Amino acid sequence: MLTGRGVDLIIIDDPLKPEEALSQAQRRAAKELFDHTLYSRLNDKQRGGIVLVMHRLHEADLVGHVVAQEDWELVCLPAIAETEETQTVDTVWGAKRLTRRQGEALHAAREPPPMLEQIRKTIGEYNFADQYQQAPSPLGGGLVKTGWFRHYAVEDAPQFERIVQSWDTASKATELNPTLPSPACGRGKGRGAPAGGCRARTSI
Question: pTM of the full predicted structure?
Answer without folding.
Answer: 0.59
